[in-house]
Amino acid sequence: MKCFLDRDGVFNIDYPYVGTIDRFCWCPQIFPILKLLHSQGYQLILITNQSGINRGYYSYRNFLDLSFYILNTLAEHSIDLEINYCRHKPEERCKCRKPEPGMLYRYSISDSDIFIGDKATDMIAAVRRGIPNRFLISSAPSGPYTEAFDCHASLLSRLTAALIPPTSTYACSPGKRRWDRL
């Protein structure tokens, strides 16, 4: 099971072109979301557009430093993360920049896979790759999402309800995720 996540707006507050540690501000609710997904066996995979590199807003070294900062911080919480990025500008028309699904093609997709993003481009890339569960964090949702949430806390509640077995006698298949029953 895989959970693909956008970075800016999901992991951190989405200031324009966040490419250095000093401009990176965590979204506090991302930690319980990641811990929950990790505890349920999800592989966590970051899928992020970073055109600020090719635009010259920050260096590739700055981006790598920030990426290692993210990885090290998550490791302190016993959370593993894989990072995929596209450094191209939109006018370069590459196949990896979202909404194109190029960064997702290296992964096989299953019915339980999730994409969490904050923009329509995230949801479009997920649809193009066939990811069935597309969760959008946005106060003004648009795009082909499965469900939209106005904040991280709402998403966390939904994921908890879907992933944590109820404490009742209701029986369900082990390991099966039933997004459509909630």
Rounded mean pLDDT is 92
Q: Determine the number of helices (DSSP H or I, runs of at least 4 residues).
A: 5
Count of individual domains: 1
Q: Level of helix content?
A: 25-40%
Q: How many DSSP-defined strands? A: 6
Largest sheet: 6 strands, parallel
CATH class: Alpha Beta
Using the 3D structure, state the CATH architecture. 3-Layer(aba) Sandwich
CATH topology: Rossmann fold
Detailed description of the structure:
The chain has helices at residues 30-39, 52-55, 60-76, 120-129, 152-163, and strands spanning 2-5, 43-49, 82-86, 114-117, 133-137, 147-149. It is α/β, with parallel strands linked by helices. It has a single domain, classed as 3-Layer(aba) Sandwich (Rossmann fold). It has a six-stranded parallel beta sheet. Helix 1 (30-39) packs parallel to helix 5 (152-163).
Describe the structure in brief:
The chain has 182 residues and is α/β, with parallel strands linked by helices. The protein has helices at 30-39, 52-55, 60-76, 120-129, 152-163, and strands at 2-5, 43-49, 82-86, 114-117, 133-137, 147-149.
